[in-house]
Amino acid sequence: MEFRYLGNSGLKVSEIIYGNWLTHGSQVENDAATACVRAALDAGITTFDTADVYANGKAESVLGEALKGERRASLEILTKVYWPTGPGGPNDTGLSRKHIMESIDGSLQRLQTDYVDLYQAHRYDHETPLEETMQAFADVVRAGKAHYIGVSEWTADQIRAGQELARDLGFRLVSNQPQYSMLWRVIEGEVVPASQELGLSQIVWSPIAQGVLTGKYEPGAAPPEGSRATDEKGGADMIKRFLDDEVLTAVQGLRPVADDLGITMAQLAIAWVLANDNVAGAIVGASRPEQVESNAAASGITLDADVLATIDEVLGSIPTTDPSKTASPPTRVV
Q: CB–CB of 173/149 below 8 Å?
């Protein structure tokens, strides 16, 4: 496993980050989830990403239990705040001071830790003054409940405004967590250049496009039984955008590229996002330990310029690149 600095900070994270969205506390039984976490640790993964909204807190609880007994200083635990939690009352969502201060305490309790290494704004809150949000994050850091602060799916302008306030308050934003893959490149035009300028790294989610870049979904064929595309509770809505025959045909064209390199298509997809210098780590999820082991092997794979050019040629105009696709809900979701 190789490691990269997170933004302009001294914190290093593993290139492959284990995430438990859609799995722990919902799709995967606790024993299987724990086995996946153990596989991640065995593969050299030290960075674990979760959020309070995942399975309404259950994902954090499962991860906390799975990591119990590990040396805390040897791990980087990441969580997030914004989406509705608890019973979904009027203050159970967003980035108000009330919700942030109460949410960090709930996350720490469920994760069985005194602090998280990175606390992330899971979306931008258009209903709360940014000054209020950043002051609350500054206080979370000063209280020792989080070492670093990041954001997720913020636009370039939002990142700029947030970083300016953070500096005034004596801390810095170190990361952004966007969706990023060969098929979804909306951060490249504006978010990545702004992040490079301001000292943030990307921690990317869905590097294999909800599983589409594994090649298991074939044009003209029904989705494999038990796959994410057939699970209405496990991301079927998210994957729909990629289940187009034109997209799936282009993805099959990547198979010879992976075969020539002697790697899986999933490893190719993960190595591709890691080829971006602004990416600190790629989040991978799993329902089985062998998936973790295989995905972790993507760390350290270098794709040369010819391979990257071939990938661009194969995919052509298929990838989504419109920067306006980076967006947070205009109002809080309850």
A: yes
Helix (H), strand (E), coil (C) string for 118-173: EEEECCCCCCCCHHHHHHHHHHHHHCCCEEEEEECCCCHHHHHHHHHHHHHCCCCE
**How far from the centroid of its chain's Cα atoms is residue 86's Cα?**
22
**How many other CB atoms are there within 10 angstroms of residue 69's CB atom?**
7
Amino acid identity of 23?
Answer: T
- The rounded distance, in Å, linking the Cα atoms of 45 and 283 is 11
Q: In whole angstroms, how far apart are CA 199 and each of 24, 79, 100, 131, 280?
A: 32, 20, 24, 20, 12
Catalytic residue among 54, 119, 124, 180: 54
d(CA 20, CA 37) in angstroms, rounded, equals 9
pLDDT in tens, 122-168: 999 999 999 999 999 999 999 999 999 999 999 999 999 999 999 99
What's the residue count for the chain?
Answer: 334
Instruction: Read off the pLDDT of residues 72-125 as tens digits, 9 standing for 90 and up.
Output: 999 999 999 999 999 989 999 999 999 999 999 999 999 999 999 999 999 999
Reply yes or no on whether 82 is catalytic: no
Global pTM exceeds 0.85: yes
